[in-house]
Amino acid sequence: MNGLFEALTGLTLLDPWMLTLAGLLPLSLWVRRWRGAPAVSFAPAVFARRPADGGPRSWPSRLRPLPRVLQVTGLMFVVVALARPVGRDPLPLTTEGIDIVLCLDISSSMRATDMDEKRTRLDVAKESAAAFISGRPNDRIGLVCFARYPDLRCPLTLDHRALQNFLGGVEMVDEEGPEDATGIGTAVAQAAHVLGTSEAKSKVVILLTDGEENVATEDTPGEIAPIHAAQLCKELDVRVYTVAAGIGRRSRAGAVVPLDTRQVQRVASKTGGRFFAARDAEAVSGVYAAIDRLEKVTFDEPHFRIVDRFLPFLVAAVTLLLSAWILQATKLEVMP
Fold it and tell me: What SS3 state is found at 112?
């Protein structure tokens, strides 16, 4: 019975045994019928009777059973209300999102078109990053751009529309300008600092660069080297995924010099992340897709709130019983 009721109404009965009371209704009708009708009946102006000539019955005559039907239906609603119908309202799913900082190289070498003839390395990186952001709606994501110096363009946020706007406005630094260098160590350290106060169970940096560290060198011991930034990330429980984009750099003679990826590989390895080499646009998209599969968002089991739904049935019952009483006391009055 409970299953049928749930299929018809979407509600569940907490006390379905109360429906057995409905069996008393036919019994009461049978007892009343067995006792018979009153010896003398009176209706206002004999209007409920069929005319002596057998003509059509008047509308009060036709409606005489209506109060009884309303009473029975109203009592049925009372029984249903006593059975405690309840609904299960789903509660919002809670998620354990991931905090991610995208760390994007904007040095002038990102102007190369070796990954896509119609787009620069930076354009390819931005487009793939935008698709990655769109697929992670439950994560807080921030954006750090870097050349010689790191620049926090967007803090960790769930407002991905704003983040996409910041990403779309990213441009390269001037070629041969004072900022045209590659400071990987300081960029990773800046990203780790952004994630340092995060309470997320998973904290991730995705570093995309087409160059080698040339800010922290033997001649600049005060700068943060990539391996030192990796140590900081490890202490803060931050994983770093590193992506080496492009086929390398061209020498002054025009020859392609392969990129030395040893430093960024060590950063990824030391922090528990992974290193990826992306030589073309399709590979960059594949890297972001791989990271998306590796960094999963955890969802709690669905929860529901039990809400009593007896009130509509009780209101319907009172309405029907009151209507029956009014009809019996007025237009359809029958008295012994």
Answer: coil
DSSP 39: S
Q: Cα separation of 127 and 131, whole Å?
A: 6
Q: To 5 degrees, how large is the angle CA 120–CA 124–CA 128?
A: 170
Q: What is the distance of C-alpha 262 from the center of its chain?
A: 40
Determine how many CB atoms are found less than 10 A away from the CB of residue 48: 20
Torsion of CA 175, 209, 126, 281, to 10 degrees: 110
Q: Which tens digits make up the pLDDT trace of 200-252?
A: 889 999 999 998 999 999 889 899 999 999 999 999 999 999 999 998 877 77
Please state, in angstroms and rounded to a whole number, the distance separating the CA atoms of residues 134 and 257: 35
- Total-model pTM: 0.64
- Quick one: CA torsion of 7, 10, 15, 21, rounded to 10 degrees? -60
**From edge to edge, which strands make up the β-sheet containing 304-308?**
12-13, 85-90, 304-308
The pLDDT of residue 184 is above 90: yes
**pLDDT digits over 57-95, tens only?**
556 666 667 777 888 888 888 888 888 888 878 766 566
Q: Using CA atoms, how far apart are residues 87 and 206, in angstroms rounded to an integer? A: 45
Least confident residue range of 42-46, 101-105, 238-242 = 42-46
Cβ contact 281:124 at 8 Å: yes
Domain parsing of the chain, residue ranges = 2-91+304-329, 95-299
Spatial distance between the Cα atoms of 179 and 212, rounded to a whole number of angstroms: 15
CA distance linking residue 246 with residue 53, whole number of Å: 104
| Cβ 106 vs Cβ 173: under 8 Å | yes
Provide the CATH topology of domain 95-299.
Answer: Rossmann fold (3.40.50)
Alpha helices in the chain (DSSP H): 2-9, 24-35, 59-62, 66-82, 121-134, 160-168, 184-195, 226-235, 262-271, 281-294, 310-329
Q: Comparing C-alpha atoms, which of 124, 159, 123 is closest to residue 139?
A: 159
- Residues 69 and 322: beta-carbon distance below 8 Å: no
